[in-house]
Amino acid sequence: MRTALLSILILGLGLALFPDFSDSMVAQEPAPVEEVDVDSDPAAELALLKRDLAVAKLRMEHLLSEQELNRLETEMEHAEAVANLQQFNVYGRAAAMEQAALDLLYSKDELADSEEELRQLSMMYEANNLADATAQIVMDRANRGIERQRKALEIATKENANWIEFGLPRKFSEIKNAEILAAAQMNLMFLTQTLALKEMEIEINDLEKQIKELATELQESSD
Fold first, then answer.
1. Is this prediction's pTM over 0.70?
2. Separation of first and last alpha carbons in the chain
């Protein structure tokens, strides 16, 4: 309690003897930083325009490099699509038809071999007067196998005809459409790049024009 009263008395004495002491204890606010008004400072405005021009030119260089990479990728994709179409027209179509005919021939040969084996088996049984149950089981099994092969050959014949009539044209359409799409993408890429370059050229030209006009004004004002 005594300590608190003593502190109050000392503080009151200090305020009486040094009335400006309390004002000096108050934190003073920092002086505001003066901002450069480029509108009223042509030299500062000119410096900013030159900086913007330098940045714009760097953006132009980056754009050109990026466009070159995109152009190469798009042209390669289109070239690959064109090569696939040419290869299909020259080799693919004929090879596909030959392969389908070969698969069908395999089915026919397998059926013919099975029929010949059954004929030889039947002749052997007849020559040896074998007419027991075991021989009949073997003959029945061979007949069922031949019927399955005949059905498989019938299906293969239909599939071969469907492939030639529908599958082959569809395959050609897929390859042709891929080439058309690649060509359209390449054309779109060229248009997009042309537009982007034009916009950058306009921006750079505008900056150069402003710099030239402002530099002229500064030169005239200094004369």
1. no
2. 79
